[in-house]
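User: Can you help me understand a structure? I only have the sequence.
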Amino acid sequence: MKNKLLNLLAVIGLTVTTFVASLPANAQLQIETSGVGATQISIAIAGFSNENLAPQQITDIIKADLSRSGIFKIVDTGDVISDTTPVNLADWKARGADALVIGSVQRLADVRFNIRYRLLDTVKSTQLSALALTAAPQHTRVIAHKIADDIYEKLVGTRGAFATRITYIIKSGKEYRLEVADSDGEGTQVAFRSNEPIISPAWSPDGTKVAYVSFEDKKPVVYVQNLVTRQRILVANHKGSNSAPAWSPDGTKLAIALTRDGLTQVYMVNADGSGLRRLTNTNGIDTEPQFSADGKTIYFTSDRSGGPQIYKMSANGGDAQRVTFAGSYNISPRISPDGKTLAYISQRGGRFQLYVLDLTNGQEQRLSDTIKDESPSFSPNGKYIMYATGSGRRGSLAVVSVDGRVKQHLTMQAGDIREPTWGPFMK
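Assistant: Let's start by predicting it. Here is the structure, written out as C-alpha cells:
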C-alpha cells in the first residue's frame, strides 16, 4: 500500500490533498501573524513627507513587512518626518524606539517617484543607512519592500526577503492557474492557465523563469516558462510520467523524475531539454530531487528502505546516503540556502506535518501545528519556510520561522491554494 501511494505521489508531485474550491480573479492573500522572535527590536517609522503623492503608502508597506517578520515591535509615532528634518534621537529613545525611520517622496517630471529614507540608531545616535531610490508608479510597492529589506539587514544582520516573489497553484472552477505574487501576497499575476492540472512549480535561480508540470496533454509533462516573455520550452515529455523539476544553482540544468524506464527514477537534463542523463538506478521509487545550494548534492525521496525516506547523493549520481531516520514516512525534501537545515513533510499518527532536521547535529523539530501540510519552501535568506496546508476541503498557505516561534497564515477569501515556492533574491 505504501509503495502504491508513493508511486501515485511521485506522479503528481507528492501532493497530499486535492483542489476543490473556486477563486475570484482579483483575490489577494490575507496574512495573519502570530508569535514573536526570541528578541524584538523596537522601531519607530515616521510617515514619509509627501507620501500621499505615491500610489501606495510607503510607510504602511514597510510597517507591514517588518511586523509580520515577528522580529520588530512597531512604535507608534503619529508624526510625518522628512529625511532632511533634524531629529532629537534622545527623545525617540525615551519613547522606547531603538531605531527611527524617516523619509520623503518626490514626484519627478517624468512621472516617476524619488523615494528617500534614512535609518537612525537612537541608542548610539548614529545613522545606520540611507537610500535614494527612483521608480515608476507601478513599482513604488517594490521600493517600499526594498527599504524594509535594508532595515532588516542593518538591524538583524541578515538580508531581508520582502522584495522577493512567490508562486503557487490555484484552481478556479475547472481552470488551474500558476500565479506569481509579491512575498506579501500583493501584485498577483497569472503566469499560466489551463483546464488541466498544473503542479510542481520551481523558480530558476535568477527569478526570470519557472519550471512546472502541466497535464494539458493528458499526461504530466515538464515545461520551463519565461515570466517576462511568457515563452515556454518543453523540457521533458518522455514515455510515462515527467515530474518534479528542480533547478541546479547555476540555472543550466534541471533534476527531474521520470518513469520512462520503469519505476520513477531521478534524471538530469539541460534547461533546454537536451542532454538527458539518468542519476539513480534502483528497484524502488526515487523522486522529488532537490539541489543543495552549492550544486554538489541532490536530496531526494526514495522507498528503497521499504517506506518513503529522504536520501542524498552526488549531483553526478552514484551511491546514496539515507538522511531521515525518525518516522516511517518522510517526503518533500528542501534544503536551506546555507545547507545546514533540511525541511520535509513527515506523516506520523495520521498527520502530515512540517519538520526540520539540523544536519550539523541531527536534531529534529516539528514546526507546524496543522495536519495536512505539503510543499515546504525556504525563503531565500533561510529564515522562514512557506508551505501549503489543508483545513477541511480547502487549502491555504502558511509561513513559519525556522525556529518555530513566528507563524503566518495566508488565506484567500475564497479559493484553494497549493504548492507554494519562494523565489530567489532579485537583482
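Now, to help you interpret it: Confidence is low (pLDDT under 50) at residues 1-27. The chain has two domains: 2-19+164-422, 39-156. Let me know which part you'd like to focus on.
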